[in-house]
């Protein structure tokens, strides 16, 4: 265990503060790097009336614990004027607030982020965009703010800088987005100006402008990932299921999952279906039924009506096949 020696040479005896009941506010220490200058520094403290609780010898030099924040400032000012080598840290009351904002789009620059914060009444001192090893911007931004009451409100912000939150997605209108894309692609407006004019998200506008296709096509895209089977094949599968039902040959859920796998394999489509079972999964089945709930439903077999039985004859079957 490292032993620390208290400097006793010509040191004023610190006052006994053990009898004070209220807890003292801890003052940031100051480290005097050159221990040989302690005698002169100590005499300077006595002549100027600078008070400190204690001075402890450490590996880096002499660690001085000021009596109060005012004494801390006077010591730092004295060391700077006398060019005394030292190091310290800001006082707790003077330390800035560091806030990390997540989900900020990589296209937003530090200047745009600072302007957005200033419009909301904040006074950012520095904006730092975090980056990966290759210099690729990350969706993380560090904001340094002065330690004031307004800065604390930043931690309660939920809709800031188009960050990800629990709000609903795709709240913009397709017509507004289409006009914004046309203005950006024709170089009439920039991304930020078009987003403000047509009230659309800037990140979404940037993504759709760089997407191949006409403005009407890119605006009609739906949320979520693509289905395993394209919409055309799913429509054919739905029609086939309805035809088989009219022919009194209703298919089971297992049959449907197997048919989905066969369609994907015969059309050489990439799919997440099981090759071992040669069948689609239950998640795909539930999603398929949800997408076509207006046409399909799962039912238990029931008795066939007379009209349907009479309609199932050789002529109708030959006409179908």
Automatic annotation (TrEMBL):
GO terms for cellular component: nucleus. Residues 221-298 form the HTH CENPB-type domain. GO terms for molecular function: DNA binding. Residues 163-215 form the HTH psq-type domain. Residues 1-22 are annotated as: Disordered. Residues 191-211 bind DNA. It is found in: Nucleus. Keywords: DNA-binding, Nucleus. InterPro entries: Homeodomain-like_sf, HTH_CenpB_DNA-bd_dom, HTH_Psq. This is HTH psq-type domain-containing protein. It comes from Acanthoscelides obtectus (Bean weevil).
């Amino acid at each position: 265990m490292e032993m620390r020696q208290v400097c006793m040479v010509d040191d004023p005896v610190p006052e006994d503060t053990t009898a004070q009941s209220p807890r003292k506010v801890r003052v940031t220490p100051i480290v005097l790097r050159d221990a040989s200058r302690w005698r002169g520094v100590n005499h300077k403290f006595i002549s100027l009336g600078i008070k400190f609780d204690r001075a402890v010898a450490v590996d880096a030099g002499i660690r001085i614990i000021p009596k109060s924040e005012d004494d801390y400032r006077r010591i730092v000012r004295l060391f700077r004027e006398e060019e005394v080598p030292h190091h310290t840290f800001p006082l707790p009351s003077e330390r800035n607030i560091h806030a990390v904002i997540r989900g900020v789009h990589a296209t937003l620059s530090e200047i745009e982020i600072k302007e957005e914060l200033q419009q909301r009444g904040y006074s950012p001192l520095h904006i730092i965009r975090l980056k990966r090893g290759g210099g690729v911007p990350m969706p993380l931004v560090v904001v340094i703010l002065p330690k004031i009451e307004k800065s604390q409100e930043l931690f309660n912000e939920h809709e800031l800088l188009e960050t990800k939150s629990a709000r609903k997605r795709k709240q913009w209108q397709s017509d507004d987005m289409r006009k914004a894309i046309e203005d950006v692609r024709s170089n009439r407006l920039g991304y930020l100006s078009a987003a403000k004019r047509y009230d659309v998200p800037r990140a979404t506008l940037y993504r759709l402008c760089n997407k191949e296709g006409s403005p009407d096509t890119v605006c009609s895209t739906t949320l979520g990932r693509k289905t395993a089977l394209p919409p055309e094949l799913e429509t054919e599968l739905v029609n086939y299921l309805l035809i088989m039902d009219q022919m009194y040959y209703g298919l089971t859920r297992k049959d449907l999952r197997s048919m989905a796998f066969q369609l994907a394999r015969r059309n050489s489509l990439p799919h997440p279906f099981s090759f071992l079972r040669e069948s689609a999964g239950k998640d795909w089945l539930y999603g398929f039924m949800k997408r076509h709930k207006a046409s399909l439903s799962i039912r238990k077999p029931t008795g066939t009506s007379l009209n349907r039985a009479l309609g199932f004859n050789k002529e109708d079957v030959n006409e179908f096949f």
